[in-house]
């Protein structure tokens, strides 16, 4: 075995990504679902219904309660549309370049996300990213949610080093930190993330590094 070959084996990486608010902004999913629902309520009035829904969301009001009362609709079916519609969403800036580069380097990649199977699968299809990943773990399909170790251990194979690249210190980094993975938090430079981060998290919960997508290359190379 040549030294070069050995070094190549040794440097084998497995890079696992989170989906929501990491590869795309979850607020874009919400807007896409609201658009679909507004159109289904009334094609003609959809712009004003959509604007009102967004307004209520910003005020932290119950958007579906409002719609169900005003238009005599079933709240459960609104929620079903929200979860099951095919979304119009796009990757965050810089994501595609990173995924493409890693693919050309034959780096193994995975996707680890919480949520319902159909909702998350639709997002993956809409973003056209399935072909990048060697393995996709969705909490509903595996039966446990982050930070359950099972969700992370599902990726462990012959790779030499593991990375988890995600956005939410409340649940994303504690387990991979304990497993000895590299953890990187993608910064929210556009201030668009949906979930606030809890304060007073212990260091175990935090990512080892923070980066923008553009800066990520330097960290993983
Ligand atoms: Mg996330």
Layout of helices and strands:
Blueprint: H1 3-10, E1 13-17, H2 26-41, H3 46-58, H4 63-71, H5 75-84, H6 95-104, E2 108-113, H7 117-127, E3 135-138, H8 139-142, H9 149-153, E4 161-166, H10 174-178, E5 182-186, E6 209-211, H11 213-220
Parallel strand pairs: 1-2, 1-4, 2-3, 4-5, 5-6
Helix pairs in contact: 2-3, 2-5
C-alpha end-to-end distance:
24 Å
The description of the largest β-sheet is: 6 strands, parallel
The tally of strands reads 6
CATH H-level superfamily title of the largest domain: HAD superfamily/HAD-like
CATH architecture annotation of the largest domain = 3-Layer(aba) Sandwich
Rg, alpha carbons: 20 Å
Strand percent estimate: 5-15%
Report the top-level CATH class of the largest domain: Alpha Beta
Bin the helical content. Answer: 40-55%
Fill in the CATH topology of the largest domain.
Rossmann fold
Q: Which stretches are poorly predicted, pLDDT < 50 over at least 5 residues?
A: none
How many separate domains make up the residues? 2
Order of helices and strands: HEHHHHHEHEHHEHEEH
Treating each run of at least 4 consecutive H or I residues as one helix, how many helices?
11
Cα shape: elongated
By secondary-structure content and strand pairing, the structural class works out as alpha/beta
Strand order of the largest sheet: 3-2-1-4-5-6
Q: Which molecules other than protein and nucleic acid are bound?
A: magnesium ion
Average pLDDT reading = 92
Describe what this molecule looks like in 3D.
- This protein has 221 residues and is of the alpha/beta class.
- The protein folds into 2 domains: 3-25 and 89-220, 3-Layer(aba) Sandwich (Rossmann fold); 28-84.
- The chain contains 11 helices and 6 strands.
- The protein has a 6-stranded parallel sheet.
- Helix 7 links the parallel strand 2 (108-113) and strand 3.
- The chain is elongated, with a radius of gyration of 20 Å.
- The mean pLDDT is 92.
- Bound molecules: magnesium ion.
- Residues 18, 20-22, 166-168 line the site of magnesium ion.
